[in-house]
Amino acid sequence: MLRLAIVACAASAMLAGFWIGLGRLGWELPHAAAFASLHGPLLISGVFGTLVALERAVASGGGWSLAAPALSVSGSVLLLAGMPVTAGAGAYVLAAAILTGASLVALWRQPAAFSATLVAGAAAWLTGSALWAYGSPVPDVAGWWLAFLVLTVAGERLEISRLVPQSRLSLPLFLGAISALLLGACAGLFTALGACLSGLGLLALTAWLIRHDIALRTVHQAGQVRFMAMCMLAGYAWLGAAGILLLAVPPATTAFGYDMAIHAVLLGFALSMVFGHALIILPAVADIHPRFGRALYLPLATLHASVALRVASDLLGTGAGRQWSGLVTVAAVAGFAACIARSTRSTRSHDARTGS
């Protein structure tokens, strides 16, 4: 019951983040302007941070590590209730600290490059949240939060890639990519050095993922396995696009350079990963058992169309395109949620009829 409540709270934080995001894009929505500065923190920590912490806690057997997603949820509640930012940010810091501690325990139990990468990802969330709690503006800490998302996925894919034969340069390339990404976060996305290092890190990591990820093999299969692979590969394409954007149009040099790179990673990459993993994560963390259906391809395609519209509108400086891209993103997430809910009801009806 606690896990399901945490998932529901993360979904509520996503709704709030999207509501605020639509307000930032120019749609006139009640209360959106008052919470404009919370758009990024709610989505990064309130949604992705909560889900990552919950997944890691379940994988480790629960216990004290469940405090991480619970604290992350508390941070979102405090922020949306109008409490001081330091209160909500402090809860996020504690959540990230517990996740980092749990990741260090996992590394101690199973010393490996992928475990160390997960530690680095959690520590990046902790660093970004701590800097934000101490008053740094969101754009200055965004590199740390993006590193959290990217390294979390990269660490998990590195673990799975052990099923595929590796070259001698595989691990050095991977470590070089994540090192560049972390150094870019240290420098900051709005510095020339930070944008360059982050861009190179994202491009190198994209090259590694395309070369070594099993998604290149599983995409030729059918059903749910192929859908997951499509989500992975589409996400990698946006990860590489974000790297190119950081190099070609650095955030400090153009009006929407920051917006393009951030949303290419946050929506095109991270949200695509959520779509791809939902069918296997929801049963484990919330006892929800959706089934795969071809209808899931429609919200997936809609999601990536929305990101393409957002980036194109940013490049052209088209305000209307930016506004509508937000609505298309919301439609994609709503459509995905509807497909999950429908398939879950179908599964329960089938189980009830068969007595299973």
What's this entry about, in short?
This protein has 356 residues and is an all-alpha fold.
Task: Describe, in plain words, how this protein is organized in 3D.
This protein is an all-alpha fold and about 350 residues long. About 80% of the residues lie in helices and about 0% in strands. The chain is built from 13 helices and no strands. Helix 7 packs antiparallel against helix 8 (about 190-210). It is globular, with a radius of gyration of 19 Å. The two termini are about 20 Å apart.
Radius of gyration: 19 Å
What form results from the Cα inertia axes? globular
**How many strand elements?**
0
Q: Can you tell me the residue ranges where pLDDT is under 50 for at least 5 consecutive residues?
A: none
Helix-strand makeup class: mainly alpha
List the topology elements.
Elements: H1 2-24, H2 39-59, H3 67-80, H4 85-109, H5 113-133, H6 138-160, H7 170-187, H8 192-212, H9 215-218, H10 223-248, H11 257-286, H12 297-316, H13 319-354
Helix pairs in contact: 1-2, 1-3, 2-3, 2-4, 2-6, 2-11, 3-4, 4-5, 5-6, 6-7, 6-8, 6-11, 7-8, 8-10, 10-11, 11-12, 12-13
